[in-house]
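Trying the structure run again after the queue cleared.
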Amino acid sequence: MKIKFWGVRGSIACPGPKTLKYGGNTSCIEIRSDDNDLIILDAGTGIFQLAQTLFPELPLTCHIFITHTHWDHIQGLPFFIPSFIPGNNLNIYGAFDPVEQRGISSILARQLEYSYFPVREEELKATTKYVTLAEHQTVQAGSAKVTNIFMNHPVLNFGYKIECNGKTVFFTGDHEELYNLYAPEDEDYHKYEKFMTQKNKAILDFVRGVDVLIADTSYTRDDYPAKQGWGHGTFDGNMRLAKEAGVKTMFFTHHEPTRDDANLEKVFQEALDRHPRKPGDPEYLLAQEGLEFEL
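Done. Tokens:
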């Protein structure tokens, strides 16, 4: 498999001279199976740049897996050029909205309403199939297999595991390690503690042994106390997860939008200094727009 990063920024796009090295586009990752099947993880603004490279492959079939439908993970989808061209086949997968009782098709269609976008959904020329996934549902995407698990974020968010010919990649989407919402004296403290422990273990078991882990790492340990509950991970927490899961290579992504290139490298180095690599530890890398990695 091959991985290419097209958007590594969290929350909001932040192009400019201070983010040139790592990029300012929001979440989008291209995965190619060994048979060159096209799998796209998230449709943040980075998907627009990805689309520019696909013309030689038209007509194409692609599989777009949406981790969740917050803006920074879907805002590029209306600008995905293959949608406008007949003969292309798009398969778009995502989670159900339990609050408004809507599937992924209904949720994403809102972006194409009159108030938000000049082209109506009915005018798109590609053949698009929407699939609302259940947890642990497996999708065959060409020669690759994609399975999901619910992560922890303030909306239903899937982490996706992609498997092909014995190699595996896991992408968290947005995720914060579960913590107990209750004080020890609260009635529900122990009940939630049990749930939290089981869920964190289920995620660890799901990630265990993957070749590549790509994880939301918005915050440093110093940022985190002021942003606990916002649904994002830290360098320290993700390093711990990667070690416990026996991951080979870890990419930190969803970079905090106020963090410029120099500051991103500074906080990354500080995290490495706190957790010096030992034999058998994962290799740690910052995700970067345009960066390619082959398993």
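The radius of gyration is 19 Å. Worth checking whether this holds up in the mutant runs.
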